[in-house]
Structures are given as structure tokens and as C-alpha cells.
Input
Amino acid sequence: MLLSMCLEQETLTSMDDMMKRELENRCWPPTYIATVTYGKEEFAELEIGDALFPLDPEINICKASYGGVLLIKTSLTEEAAIKLLSLNPPSTLRRFMKILFCCEYSELTECLSNNINILSKINFSSLRVSERSGINYEQVMRLLNKVGYQLRKKETSLTLSVEPIRNFICFTKQLPVITHVR
Output
């Protein structure tokens, strides 16, 4: 009986893992990352989905493997997403970021070198590195300098944000959206 219960629990855990992977797969690769109020991910999913659905009924939104982060796969442009989110500001939204590219941890320098042209087209003035990324601000700045990218402090107010997703480090453009004041 105990062995049977253990096997059932193992099957349930495997099923939970499989369902979690499937949810992430429909959002992979994501086009946007949203950071939301921790513990309010399901509500945030509804709010963001309601705001973006009118122009993309095929949108997929999934919770990431850690709290407070949603992965969004949509065909919407930055401009359309910003406009829709600004018209209906989600109360749980903290940051909304367009994914520029993602790199595997083990190939970070090579990947940055290969994608420097993407970064060079955008005049970022600041850098934000997620605490969960497994890499710190100074390391990212050294890598960016190594591949020849420099932040342009006074030209714009755009933020290059570094976010972890699965086994990847994603380089994102933080987008200006109106959020509810807390």
C-alpha cells in the first residue's frame, strides 16, 4: 500500500512537471517578459491577457518557474503592446520588457558578440540586472565592454534589462508602460 502511494505521488509529480513544461513550451520562445506583483501572477495573467487580446487573440501567457514573472508570446509590436497596456494599465504590472535575444550561460560572451548589432541599434542609457540571473551588474558591464558595447548615459532613458529564463540570460528592452501607482 505504501509503495502504491509513493508511486502515485511520483506519477503526480511527474505529471505536474510535464504540465509545467507544456505551459512554458507554448510561451517559448517568449517575445516579452512581464514582472508582476509576487503572488498575483494568475490575476496579472488575466489583466495583461485582457489588455493585449483584442489585437492578438493567439497570445500565450505563462508563469515562469519563479514567482513574479510572466512569459508572453505574442505577435504584437512594441508600439501596439505599449498602447494597449497604457489604455488598460494592469494593476499588478511592474515592468514590461521586449526580449531582444537570449544566451545560454555557457556561451554568454560568444552570444553577446554575435548579437552586438542588435544592441548597437538601441541607445540604452542604463543597465538593470535581475538578482535571479546568476550574474551581477559588474560582470555584465565587463562583458558588454569586452564585446564593444557602451551605454549612452545622456542620450536616452532606455534601460537594458538582463533577465534569467530557464537556462538562458535574456537581454531585454524595458518598455515604458503606465502602471498603477502604489
Notes: Residues 2-25 form the longest helix (24 residues).
